[in-house]
Amino acid sequence: MSPATARAAGPAGSDGDVDAANAGPPQAAGAGSIKSAERVLDLLQLIASEGSQAWTFSDLRARLDLPKSSLHGLLRVLTDRGYLDLDPDDKSYRIGVSAWQVGRSFLFAEQLATVARIHLRQARVDLNETFQVSILDGVDNVYITKEESDQPLRLVSEVGSRLPAYTTGLGKVLLAGLTVEEVEDRFRGREFVTFTPSTVASYDALKSQLDEVRAQGFAEDHGEFTEGVYCVAVPIRNAAGATVAAVSCSIPSARLQDAHATRERALAVLRTCADAISEAL
């Protein structure tokens, strides 16, 4: 489905203008990508790709073809920050503990997916609709596991895919778990692309919807990314009560003869499912 061309900007900076000086992080790499950041990633990926192999300065320079001064600087910063370990005897480099800590966030997603699958299966049995679990990454929600309905008409989606969080019920639940200030920071300078006539088209509209989500404890998506699909979602919380993920039920609009009753049945199943997942984490 091709997105519409209508776009609106996120919240303005302190002077009321949305410009390059006040904009948030760049939306995509490209002409403005930072060469040093690319070199850092190339360096880490190379060292990590060989498992336990240690790399000398000469080895790294030969593989990456970087200027000596640049490579020295990158290695010094990564070692100081704990992303690389330097062996003082043979002056070789290995992946450090800070990189491991970053990787633990991925391990959480794997653990969550494993735990969630059991309870999604039961939810699917209860309603025979499609259930999905997502986590938040920046301003996108990323699907980490799902259980599909076996009905002929059903939502088709893929684990590992991502969608703009402002276009989905899952995403709105995840954004509502942040503070107002955190949401504003993430969307500052970003454009709101309208994918369907129902898509949230501005930051102010999103902010209003998130206030409702926080008050009622769930979010809805009336065909805001894919026309003809209704979605309702609730948060999955950790022991401290923070939203760490969200679970949703997606239903083709053609099966919404009684929208209110369908939503209430879905919410009952979703809340049971979310509570069970939370307890198992």
TrEMBL record:
Keywords from the UniProt entry: DNA-binding, Glycerol metabolism, Transcription, Transcription regulation
The keyword NADP appears for this protein: no
Biased composition (Low complexity): 20-31
The IclR-ED domain, residue ranges: 98-281
Region feature (Disordered): 1-31
MF GO annotations: DNA binding; DNA-binding transcription factor activity
Domain HTH iclR-type per the UniProt entry, residue ranges: 34-97
GO biological process: glycerol metabolic process; negative regulation of DNA-templated transcription
InterPro entries referenced in this protein's UniProt entry, alphabetically: GAF-like_dom_sf, HTH_MetabolicPath_Reg, Tscrpt_reg_IclR_C, Tscrpt_reg_IclR_N, WH-like_DNA-bd_sf, WH_DNA-bd_sf
Purpose: May be an activator protein for the gylABX operon.
Name of this chain's protein: Glycerol operon regulatory protein
Organism annotation: Nocardioides marmoriginsengisoli
